[in-house]
Amino acid sequence: MDTPRRKPVVVKTSGREMALAVVAIVVIIGLLAWGFIALSHSVPQNNLTGIITAKHFTPHPTETQITIGAGGMTSRQDDGEYTFDIHVPSENHDYVLYNVDKTLYDSKKVGDEIVFLRPAPDSQ
């Protein structure tokens, strides 16, 4: 024999509880919106544009650099250290750019303009 199904009991909520729930939801959504807006402000510019004043190559014994990443394993021959001396006219400051890639080193000449990331400040 089938027993008749009973209707579920739903607890009634008071107007005060409903208002409190709505206020809590509005506060949470407001905090999320404020967080998104606060994080979406632009970051200070970290790129500098300067003029190459000198190119330096320091030879050392040839070594093979092996890199393992998402694209698999790659290797390249490294025959020395390539550096640029760069003058940034907007700051009237000179920087030394270390670990320059050989292809970039070969493609640029003294007097060319280059854009690079601002180096980390020296810890003193």
What string, H for helix and E for strand, traces the elements in order?
HEEEHE
What value does the Rg take, in angstroms?
Answer: 31 Å
Runs in which pLDDT lies below 50 for 5 or more consecutive residues are none
Number of domains: 2
Strand content: 35-45%
Please describe what this structure looks like.
By secondary structure, the chain is α+β, with helices and mostly antiparallel strands. It folds into two domains: 30 residues; 71 residues, no CATH class. It contains two helices and four strands. Strands 3-2-1-4 form a four-stranded antiparallel beta sheet, with no helix packed on it. The radius of gyration is 31 Å and the shape is elongated. The termini are far apart. The mean pLDDT is 87.
Annotation keywords:
124 residues; 2 helices; four-stranded antiparallel β-sheet; alpha+beta
Offer a concise description of the structure.
It contains 2 helices and 4 strands.
Topology diagram in text:
Layout: H1 15-39, E1 47-69, E2 72-88, E3 93-97, H2 102-107, E4 113-117
Antiparallel strand pairs: 1-2, 1-4, 2-3
